[in-house]
Structures are given as C-alpha cells and as structure tokens.
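Hi W.,

Here's what went into the run:
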Amino acid sequence: MSLLSIDRLETHYKAPDGVLRAVDDVTLTVESGETVGLVGESGCGKSTLGKTVMRLVDPTAGSIAFRGTDITRLKQNKLQDMRRHVQMIFQDPFASLNPRHTIGQILLAPLTVHGVGTKVERQQLVDAMIDRVGLPRDSLDRYPHEFSGGQRQRIGIARALILNPELVVCDEPVSALDLSIQAQILNLLVSMKKDLGLSYLFISHDLSVVRYFTDRVLVMYLGKIVESADNATLWSSPKHPYTRALMDAVPDPSRRRHVAPITGDLPSAQNIPTGCRFHTRCVLASDICRQQEPEFRSVGKTHHVACHHI
Amino acid sequence: MALPLLRVDNLSIRFPTTEPVSNLSFLVNEKETLAIVGESGSGKSLTALALMRLLPRSAKPSGQIVFAGQDLLKLEERRMRQLRGKDIGMIFQEPMTSLNPVLTIGRQITEVLQLHERLPAKAARSRAIELLDLVRIPDPQRRIDDYPHQLSGGMRQRVMIAIAVACRPRLLIADEPTTALDVTIQAQVLDLLDKLRRDLSMAVLLITHDLGVVAQWADNVVVMYAGRKVEEALPEPLFAHPLHPYTRGLLAASPRLKNNYHYKDGPLTEIPGSIVSAAGEKGCSFRPRCTVAHDSCANAVPDLFVPAANRLVACPYHASFAEEANVALVN
Amino acid sequence: MTSTELNDYAGHSGTRVRSPATEKHQPEPLNPQWNNVRAPDSRVKTSNALAAVPNKWRVLKALIHNPNAVCGLVFLALVILAALIAPLIYPGDPLAMVARPFLWPGQNPAYPLGTDSMGRDVLAGILHGARVSLFVGLVATALGLTFGVLVGATAGYFGGWIDDLLVRLIEIFQTMPSFVLLVVMVAIAQPTASTITLAIAIITWPTVARLARAEFRTIREKDFVMAARSLGYGHARIIFLEILPNALPPIIVTSSVMVAGAILMESALSFMGLGDPNVVSWGSMIGAGRELIRTAWYLTALPGIAIVFTVLSLNLIGDGLNDALNPRFTQER
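Here's what came out:
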C-alpha cells in the first residue's frame, strides 16, 4: 500500500470570468521512504496540488488516500489524525512564521494541540528539535524577525517535523534562499529523511535541485502530469518535449549564448488549449496534438509520458 | 579592441552606520556584457542604483563613476536626468511593480520617447509598436493598448526592456532581470537581451545571483561578497578554476544538472553560516565562513592579486587553489 | 567544472557536513560582532520585520519620542487624575447649589472656576464630568471593540455565506444615520449613563467590524496561517492566537479615536438634553450654559475646553500609536 496515493485529482478555483483548472486530473503515488519531485513552471498547479494534499484547499474531484485511508472528503475536524502524519514546509521563510510568536511558542503549539506527552516531555521534544536543526537553545525565546532566511527555514523544518510525520510536502523549500544557504537546507532535509525515515513530496521549479534531491520525478504542465520517471532515467532520456525544453532552459556554461529552447508563455489555466495542452509551445506539434489529448502511457519500467510523438 | 564605456573607480557607498559597498572598481567595455554576481547583501543592487544616481538620500557614495568621459557622481541632477533613460537604461527585478498599473504599456513607452527624443505623438506610437516587435511581443498593434495586468510576467519584463532600450542607450543595467521568471521564460528574456546588445551595440551590466546565467551570458564576471569585489575573471576560467574560497564554495554548493550528483552519494558541500556585513568586520569579510582562513585574514582587507591575465582575486592564499586546479587538470 | 573536479574540490575542502550547531557557536568567540542571528542575508527584510513586530517597549519608546503623543498622554493622564480625585475633593453632589450664582472664575477663591446660573460649582462639575465622559468613552469603546472584532473576525476568517450574512448585518447598521439612531435609542430607553454607553457601542461596532474583517481576510491567506491549519489547530486558536495579534495594531489605533468619538457623542446627547439628568457631564454643562453665552460665556467655554483637549489628546495618542505600531506605513508616506 502506498503511503500517499492520489487518484484523478482535480482542484478548480472559481475565477471572476470562468473556472481556473489549477490541478486537472492528476494521479500519483508516494511510497514510504521515497522522495518524489514535482517540477513545473509557476502557474502549472504544483503548489495547489501540494495544498490540496494537505487539505488546505478542497479538491473538486478525485481522491487522496493516506495509508489507504481516504481523506478527500473528511471534515476539517476529522483531519487531526492525518495532520500528525502529513506536514508541510513552506517556500517563504519570512511569511510562514507568525511574527508575534517566539520560536518556542511556534514549536510547542503543535505538541500542545495534539496533546503529545506531558508538559516536561513536550519541552524536551522542542529542545531536542531545535538542537537537531542546528539552532542554539536561546533561539526559543526569540522572535522570527531576529533570524536570517536560512535560519527561519530551519525553524519551519523544525515545526513541520516536531509531530514526527511520515510524509512532508516541501513547497519550494529552498527557492527563496541564497545559493550559499540552499546547500545547508538541502543537507538538513536529507539527514532528517535518513534519521526519521521520512518521505517527501518535493515541489520545485529548480531542476538542478530536483536532480540532486529526488528519487522519482513528475513533470507538470498546466495542471497535468506530462512525464514521470525515476530520477536517473528522466535526466538521461527525457521524452516529453516540455521536459526537454525545461532542461535546455537551465543555464549551462557549456552552451554559451545559445537560442532560447521554447517560445511563448504558459497559457492561462482558465483557458487550457484543446488536445495536448502543450501544443501551443511545442516544436513537434501536429494536427493530432491540436485535436486529441494524448494519454499518459508507459514507455519504460518506471517511465510514463503523455505525448503523441513518442 | 574593446573600449571602456563605464569605469567605476573605488566606489564606496556609506550609510550612517554601515558601508554596504567598499572600494569597488570595474570596467564595462562597449558592446560587452559584464556580470556582477553575488548573493543578497553583497551590495550588487546598491551598486546599480549608484550608477543611476538613484540611491536613497541617506547614502553617501564616493569614488568615481566615469561614463563616456564624465563622472556621474559629479554631474548636476538636470544632466543626470537627461542621461537616465536615454544613454543608460535600466530594468528591474520585479516586472509586476515596475510598470505603472493605470497606464497602457503603449503610453509608458511613448512617454520615454517623447521626453528624450521629442518625438510627436504619432511617430512615438509607431516607434513603440516597432519596439514591442523588437522585444518579440506577438501582435504589437493590439498589445500596445493593453494594461500591465493583462500581460504575463515574461511579457511585462519584455515591455520593461522595450522602455529601457527605447532611446538606444549605450549601457543597459539589468538588475536581476529574470529572477522572478520561470526558467523557460528566463532563457527567452536573456536571449532577447543578448540579441538587443548585438543589434543596438550597447553594453550590458547584468546583475544577478545566478551563476548559471553568468556562465552562459557574460563576457566578464565580477564576484561580490559583502560589498567588496572578491574575484574577477572571464567566465570560462572562473568556472573551471575558481580561485577565491567564496566562489569555490558557491560552485561546490550548487547542485547541477550535468554532474549526476545525487543525495544518496552524499551531502552537498556547504558554506557554513550566512553573509555578514563588511561593516565592523576587520580583515577579509569572508573569513567567518571560510574553510581555509588563516589568522592573518583577520588583520586587513586582502589586496587584489593578479594570478593570471584578466584575473583578479582578493585572497592571498589563492596560489594553493591554483596548484590544486593544475593537479586536477593533469589528472 | 566537471563532476570529477567538483568531487576533487569537495575532497579538499572537506565534504563533511558541518554540524549546523557548531556554525552558530564556533565563530562567536573569534569575533563577537559576528552574530549569526540577524545575519544580513535578511537585512532588507529585517528592518521591515522589526517594524512588523513592535514589542511593548519599542512601542512605548516610539510614543515617548513623539512630542505630540506625549502631549496627548500628559493631558489624558490629567483627565484621568481629575476623574479619580473628583470624589475626594468634591465628595458632595456636583449638582448641589453651593454658592451665589454667576460667580466669575477667580472671583471667589473657594470656587476657582466660578458658579453657574444655579450656584453650582463649575470646577466640581468639570471634575465629575470627566468621570462620566471617560466612563462612557472607555466602556462604549470596549463594548464596540469586542463585538466588532468578534463579528469582523468571524466574517473575515470563515468567509463564504457566514461572511455574506455578517456583511449584510454590518451594512444595515452603516446605512442608518448613526447619530439619529443614537438619539432614537436613547429616547426610547431610559437616559442613564449605561444605556447611553450601550447605545454608543451599538452604533460604533460596525466600523471596527469592517476593519477587523479586512485585516482577517488578508492575514488568513498568509503562509503562517496555512501552517497553523496544516498543523491541525482549531479555529478558535487560529483566530485568537495566530491572526488576532497580527490584526490588532490598526484596531488599537482606531480605538483611541473611538474613545474620542464616544465622548463627543455623549456630550452632544447631553447638550440636547438627552443625557442622564442625574449626573453632571461636560455636554450637559454646555447645554445649561448655552442660553447665557452672552453674559456668562465661561459656563460654555470651560467644559468646552475640557472636551476639546480630551478629544484632541486622544487623537494625538491615536496618531502616535499609528506611527509606533505601523512604522512601515509611516515610512512609506
């Protein structure tokens, strides 16, 4: 049984002029101990997918099951149990900590709310966690604004892990940080994963970070998954033209001053192109792409692609 | 042979309590791209503002900024206003906030043209359409009457570029032009900037934190740390053999697509700690984070050494890295 | 750089993961200024963040450095002092006739501010009037604030149909001319200090509710609220412990102006003779002196000055609080 299995999930938002199909028919699984990367450009629905998994946003259709238990339609107050097992790390370390609470309060509150242990035990857990993420104990009496971005992200990680979850949704956890800090945070996440046996759903737009950090990668375009493969396969033989374009777009010293890989902007999620949703920007686009939506089919043991031309 | 268009000499920017930029010198040659790379807090954006004389009032710049033979720091404000937008164009990081939301993009482009080139309204409008076409905005005749909110982030940045190059500036300062954009759009915008640089024969000062962008698009690179230049080189030698411990640390710390390094193979090399202001810091500002720091590093700000032609490095111990690099090359 | 070189380099500098715990402690003894906390990689945001989290002492400091706010605080303290000592200095009923009518201020040292047309002591009236004004101002604001914040927070936090319903309720109150409503309510009920207070609270809460709703709507979308929800916190905890402290600064600023408004309304009611007839208030004193304004102008001027200065000082405090609590806004202005 998969740790997390998402089946034909759809999350739509009401927009002033129509419906915004942020997540449109996504199926994926995360196995225990696995790190699954979710890559795509901003506006492709990857953050909405993360929030839907956390039930911070209500899905429109489909199902989310955690360890076989369907949590899609659970009322918010019935989610308590799931909350202990699934946690989230946010992108912006400046917005994700309440500016009016001390770090101690921020870390203690989840334990109090979930009634973990006695008062003394809770304090011990908080102390151990602050040590573990590499901040001095006196941080507990300080407020978030006294910390740098990297340190705040450590606090965000501590808060997400203090309930000892099994699955952590990481929504761009390093993209707001300076390069010299990114490595510190990624290393911390890796060592936490080893120590606590965590699984990650790692949402990022940065392909090089995903390349380093994940076991399996899903590429998302306009609310849909267009390619999925294990890490090594995807980088060695990307199949979908979008995946290839993404990889080509990553700046690379060996390709001095080469021409941009794809043209055009991401179409609006309110007005998704017919047929293959990538055809407006695709170099391979033909008539069939404009008319018929390609099915997501297997091209290898772990490798799936949604493209007519593969 | 490339001629210097902009020469910055010993630029320091002082605030009442701090000095976020100290003794910074560099050259921008005609028709070339100079990249200034550094993380937030390195002083790179303040440097850009100083070039445009747009620093906050509490800032006191000193040194020389010589653009086409005149010292910008000594120029009277009226002359400086003529220079801004005409001879020096600038684009900013946030395409969302740097356009006025209540004016059409056409109006914002023609405004610059009417101000600096005194074009009549009709001519300005047709120039604006040409410019939109130049920055590859599809269907410019129709788009010119759009408001900024009707455009995507990438489109807005193109409009910003159109405004910046409207009067054919000789220098374009691009402050993190693609940080807010997606990779595919980033590639398009950088490609566009480079094409404009060639077509309009302008120099580009590219300010960024992204080493990959620098490696791909720059002719010359200045690495800044805590307000000082720590290394300067052509991109190929810089990325092949970085000499300053900071540059070396940054390159080692960044995961890259091509090197097949995976978390199961081991952790990334970290630069410990975080950037510290050069203010109040005696000696080398990178010392607190440096893995090879010597006691002497605390005594004085290191001089700039010239380890090879077209290279500068602010670390007296760079020679040992050069040897390592040679060993690595031989192996 | 190829991967082999990268690994080479990694080997030289030591790939060992430096325990981040040491990263904080190690550099400190070398250089006390090197303080990881407040590292400048957050420099730009730190200044904003500092502004966003005014701790109590910083607010007080900012207030004390603002001469206008200090003037306001001093005068308000005098009014509070007057209210506190009134029953000690003048234990009798301030409505009692104690001397010859129309004593001008300074005419008789026993009655420094003179007496009115019925021989009542003006100073006693003003001191006791301060009690009524402050009581009505503070209690009406407290009631209006509590109810307004509750309604606004509920509407802003839950959204959806709850929001629609509560916004309609707020609009019903806001579409009625508030002073007319106040007069009607007081006229129907007994004009006592507590009914007047309640009536003022009823017409002022919608302002607070709108403000609180707007704040809650903005803040509930912030990541830290998302985090709180993902940690399974209950609604009450999120509303009162997570969002409310962040929504308070503009509400506090408004409340100081509300106190001033309530004092003015009470005075206006008393002036019109709709106040509590059994207590003396500044408004009723002005009302009583109104017809004699040509012959004994001090009877209207003295309580009038008391009102003007109290309201002004509350407004000055409000401005000072605004600068102290929302410095970012002030800087941007």
